[in-house]
Amino acid sequence: MMTFEQRSTDPIEPWYKQFWPWVLIGLPGTVVVASITTLFIAINNADDIVSDEYYKEGLAINRTLAADEKAKALQVQAKLGVDFSTQQLNIDLQGQLLPAPRQLRVQFVHPVNADDDFTLFLTATAPARYAGRLPQPLQGRWTIEIADAETSAWRLRKEIAVPAAGSTPIHFNIAP
User: Fold this and answer.
1) Is residue 142 within 8 Å of residue 159, measured between CB atoms?
2) With CB atoms counted within 10 Å of each terminal CB, which end of the chain scores lower, N or C?
3) pLDDT of amino acid 34
4) Chain-centre distance for alpha carbon 97
């Protein structure tokens, strides 16, 4: 039996050469690194779906609903055509619009990335016919809003799915 005075001749290794202290330090260290990485990703990739001005937009919902109802009452319909080879956008309006607007505001809203949203102002090339050029190719899902650029009294809105870019023109009917 070994007494208190008898000591082992094995040298004791310093703590930093031991396995278990590094395991106990490594687990919380990994959590800290993962938390900092998650924070970095969250700050640099903020969601575009939630608006910063949600309260003002909530108050304005009655105006947009009134514009939709006005389009229904005027029986406004639009035929939208896109020629991919020239990026040409054509809109033919139908309905009880007297006089026909001189200019249309067409908003393209991407469902996820607000940086891809854009607005076009199309001028009349013939009675109730409007034309313009798209600044970027369309592909995937988009919400299109068409309104009178001067008064915004009526509005047409439709979600469309644009197939992969090709040379074949596409056409959409938009009605309230």
Assistant:
1) yes
2) N
3) 97
4) 32
